[in-house]
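One thing: mind reviewing this one?
=====
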Amino acid sequence: MSLTGGVKRLLPRRWRGGAVVVPVVRLSGAIGAVTPMRPGLSLAGVAKLLERAFAMPNAKAVALAINSPGGAPVQSRLIYLRIRQLAEEKKLPVLVFAEDVAASGGYMIACAGDEIFCDPSSILGSIGVVGGSFGFQEAIKKIGVERRLYTAGAHKATLDPFLPENPDDVARLKAIQRDIHRTFIELVKRSRGSRLRGSDEHLFSGEYWAGETAVALGLADGIADLRSVVRTRFGDKVEMPVIEQPRGLLSGLLGRKSGAGGAMLGEGIGALPESLIGAVEERAMWAKFGL
């Protein structure tokens, strides 16, 4: 059934037929569950956004604008896999644009792109695995607290922050980190292939670099911004609809900018310590890259 001219003009230009479209999906923030009230990027949270982008009529490519310091390796890889699956199903190229930072898990997601572009001041890399904790055993002694812990399983209390550090526990954790690091390295090599330049010891040390050095190392393909690349390739009249999570008044109160207030509104005073710790940890992830 054809549309009359008047009705057709009421539709967005990309729905009228003939328009060239490159949807833009914004993926911003730490990856994984920061706290219940501060959820980060996850497959569950971005799957519908990605599906909308790849299903958009007249799409000639999909652009991803990434701004993430990393986070959970599993969620990073799941998002990467979904992007590649959709790209292959829809036969659409994926163009990735790193903004302030695409590091660690953020860089893993960026590797889903057929090409990666960045700003000269963007931070890319950090291809490694990190984990940390605290030791409170001396603190609880000083305040007169006795630790009572009951487990079934010799290693169930591994790296308990209220017990002295056990070298065997640390060795087991490092073995797990090496396995995760190996998976990360294989993904980057498979995605970037012969474009990588430099030794494995250098590229996969966990170090990170600014844009021009990242390009020289083959971690990115060029210095460019999203609008310039898309208009150069698809013409000045290309449509670039942005697809991102809705941010209304309530999400503004409870979301990333809310901090402790969001926890109090949504969960009560009992959630305040967890929310504060989550906020500090997320802030530290960004601060690592000078942001």
Residues 248-272 have pLDDT under 50 and may be disordered.
